[in-house]
Amino acid sequence: MIPIAKPWLGEEEKKAVLQVLDSGMLAQGKKVAELEKAFAEFIGVKHAIATSNGTTALHAALLAHNIGTGDEVITTPFSFIATANTISMCGAKPVFVDIEEESFNIDPELIEKAITDKTKAIMPVHLYGRAANMNKIMEVARRYNLIVIEDACQAHGAEYGIEFTETNETTKISETTKTNEASKTKTQKVGSFGTGCFSFYPTKNMTCGEGGMITTNDDAVAAKTRKIIAHGSEKRYYHDYLGYNYRMTDIAAAIGLEQLKKLPAFNEARKKNALYFNDNLSNQTNIILPQMDEGHVFHQYTIRVKNRDKVLEHLTANGIQTGVFYPVPIHQQKSFSEYNQQSFPIAEKIAQEALSIPVHPQLSDEDKYFIVNTLREINP
After folding, report:
1. What is the pLDDT of residues 188-204, one digit of tens each?
2. pTM passes above 0.85
3. Domain 11-257 maps to which CATH number in 3.40.640.10, 3.30.43.10, 2.20.28.10, 3.30.70.60?
4. CA distance 352 to 367
């Protein structure tokens, strides 16, 4: 079986864990602080706060921005359910807008229409490792004074090109190019636009076993987040408000530190594998391939097929594991029954066609060749 995901853990991770076990400091300690510092530098932000998983990162980030009862958060219906669950966990209401067909990410052109006087934040998801359209999302957020919380749980190291213009006096972000200004683009890692949230689950581009991370440039948000994940406490046994035990362990952080060192190479391998598939499956009329964006880190390589069950069965029969992420959009889930009458046609269409195939760094050339030829055997 060629697995859909395969964590790449080596001797470095094993040695790091044993060192923590020998130290006797198993809970949050020095290793967590080291990982936070290294991850903040990697993303390009002032602060990174480690948590127990991606879901707790999202929940704590929302709470740190005072999202609560009566508030609305605009997000996508096509994501893992934790995206919407964490909004509901705060007592707020998720407000869904449809996605772009090509990127699978939230359609920024639809966000403005969903804004009400109760809207407090936008939560874009960088799905499958591809950045959402942050130029437009940030422009809308600035115009309406909205918080942006990035669900980057699948996008460690993904980048987005920021459009800006240069004048003789200053450099500023802009969507338009004026005749007397030179339009330029620079890349910026996801998780550095607003408040970012990452997951280190075993299937992610890097793993801690379980773990999460919140990234921000806001000192106040960082300080409040640190209290929220430690029972609302800054000083032990003194609690300022309701909080939770959302802390990461040093064991998990030790793994994460070694994984972070390898992340750029992991991402390059994923992109190389994705390019191979795009090059060798481009003539398959029954398959819609994902776009190759420069900043895409391919947490998943997701194709679209009309006859998904047939394709899935054929790949499985030949020992190739696949994944359907996600077969039921959030607004159609039983747990969100109050949204069941809403319709988001693109998300519903993609949910019927999306099929992810292995793209992880441990694929061999023989694996990739076999996957391509197995897909070629399927008739339109």
Report:
1. 999 999 999 999 999 99
2. yes
3. 3.40.640.10
4. 26
